[in-house]
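Lab meeting, item 3. Inverse folding demo.
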């Protein structure tokens, strides 16, 4: 009885006294048996890119900034190289991120570069991809990136992603896929996200999947049960999760989509890679836990709800439009 009472008191303490990123500590307890170093397939590498921008004194940045520091610690823990493309005005931001990304023995897994390409996060993403591809080319005798070199991107505050990257790379290898899009387990998605975001992103996912089926499935493209050219079709995708992994050999599809400023910069290249490059795309479900601090900050707030609506409109006008254009290209007419 005494032991049980102590356990209850300890749990109650951690439930009440919390830092904005402390909810992740509870997650770490559930993954304590996992290796602290990511085990990638032999000969494979991965670099994760995260565009960032933090103001000096905005209250809304404090939660994400603390989570960003934790993300850097997770990158070091799992030994996943992280490239941050930062547009923050203060140099202290990049300094702190790099310091947080060091292991106890002094190894650094976080590199921060200042964003020099003008534009929003989509432009920062392309600048990061350009940097990684350039570095990979210099490491190869043929001056060409290897197909076993993987590039990923994510929002920095998605701190739980780092424990999943090795698994996702192994799935990419075994399935021989060019692109892997993680999918959130629905129960965790609903539990850990703001309720408005859960419903809006579920709707956006279903909307884009339906456009894929109706517009491209008819020509044996995305969403079709069997492709006319015997290619595997693109499965139903968690379009709105954010993180995406791709082989560096297909990075040019992201670099070539230069008009992308926000979410479209992440997703339109997936459609282009499939349609133009015959690339294979895989969806893989993971038990991703979103930071509770973000749910507490955003749930019930009109500003964030308006952002969700804006996201749906942007995705419809860009990703949805691109799929319709691909359908026209293959059928010679617009499908309605």
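The presenter then showed the designed sequence:
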């Amino acid at each position: 009885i005494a032991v049980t009472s102590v356990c209850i008191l300890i749990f109650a303490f951690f439930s009440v006294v919390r830092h904005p990123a402390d909810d992740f500590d509870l997650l770490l307890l559930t993954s304590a048996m996992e290796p602290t170093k990511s085990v990638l397939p032999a000969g494979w590498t991965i670099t994760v890119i995260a565009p960032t921008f933090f103001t000096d004194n905005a209250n809304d940045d404090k939660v994400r900034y603390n989570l960003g520091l934790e993300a850097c610690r997770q990158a070091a823990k799992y030994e996943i190289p992280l490239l941050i493309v930062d547009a923050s005005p203060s140099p202290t931001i990049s300094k702190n991120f790099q310091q947080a990304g060091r292991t106890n023995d002094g190894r650094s897994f976080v590199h921060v570069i200042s964003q020099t390409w003008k534009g929003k996060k989509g432009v920062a993403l392309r600048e990061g991809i350009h940097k990684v591809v350039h570095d990979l080319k210099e490491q190869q005798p043929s001056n060409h990136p290897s197909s076993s070199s993987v590039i990923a991107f994510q929002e920095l505050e998605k701190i739980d992603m780092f424990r999943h990257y090795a698994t996702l790379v192994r799935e990419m290898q075994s399935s021989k896929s060019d692109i892997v899009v993680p999918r959130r387990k629905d129960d965790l998605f609903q539990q850990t996200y703001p309720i408005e975001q859960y419903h809006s992103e579920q709707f956006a996912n279903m909307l884009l999947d339906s456009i894929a089926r109706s517009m491209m499935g008819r020509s044996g493209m995305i969403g079709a049960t069997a492709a006319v050219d015997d290619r595997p079709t693109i499965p139903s995708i968690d379009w709105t999760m954010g993180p995406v992994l791709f082989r560096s050999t297909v990075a040019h599809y992201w670099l070539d989509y230069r008009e992308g400023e926000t979410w479209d910069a992440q997703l339109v290249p997936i459609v282009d890679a499939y349609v133009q490059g015959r690339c294979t795309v895989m969806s893989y479900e993971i038990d991703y836990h979103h930071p509770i601090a973000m749910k507490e900050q955003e749930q019930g707030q009109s500003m964030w709800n308006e952002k969700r609506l804006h996201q749906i409109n942007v995705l419809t006008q860009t990703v949805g439009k691109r799929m319709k254009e691909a359908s026209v290209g293959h059928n010679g007419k617009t499908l309605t």
